[in-house]
Protein: Serine protease
Amino acid sequence: MTNLPPESICESLNDSVCAITMTEDGEVLSSGSGFAISPEGQVVTAAHVVTGRLPIREEDINADGTVMTCQFHSTPPIAYEAKLCGIQLRSNAFRENLLVDLAILEPLQGQKSETFKPLPRKRIGPKLGQTVYMAGFSEEVELPFKIEALLDPDTPGAGRFLHHVDRGYQAVMGKPMCKRAMVGNVLEFSATSGSRVIKGDVFYIDQAMHQGASGGPVVDESGVVVGVVTHRAVTKVYREAERIEVPSGSALAISIEALDTYVRTLDN
Structure:
């Protein structure tokens, strides 16, 4: 496929990436990002966005009393449920199951929209050194210069000014943040359990993942999905002989190939 200009890639992601929120009795339990993969509104995200924690527990999936919504740009929130949440890999050699942190969501019955714009996706993983773009909703964006705190409210026109500034801020927050990066490391994996097969890649991106981006897409230079953002990479530092882990400047992602191969196995 033909490579697209960076601005075209980021613009195309605006309508396909959604903000995901999980609430219970009005309290936010978890939030993250996802993206549409079908005209009917199926969404892919990270499994831990659905449950709010790791490891994935069955009782956390579509739990009674919880409400999960996905909100795309310029549309109201739509109620969703998880159809697949986490792929468990079992082996007698390990004390616990290995988890592939991916999930598929579907709109609840009657929760439809004409605005679903699915992203195309590849059935092969990314290549080392490949340029990619990651997108997700950010909790980092704020009004510049803290003008809402500095502005004298008694100044003539201050209220109107802040109203327009807030509208512009909300417009920005209604779109995902897009970041350009390079694939710095690729680790292949493959597993078979009975008739079920899964294979794919875990890969590192040389760009920090912002808060709220978990579950967002990683696309190549043609705008095609190659992976799903899962979490920040960490590095170890020492403080007075104590070793602690802190976020590094990289992010981890899982290839969309892993989800596709697993789903095809289930369909067969």
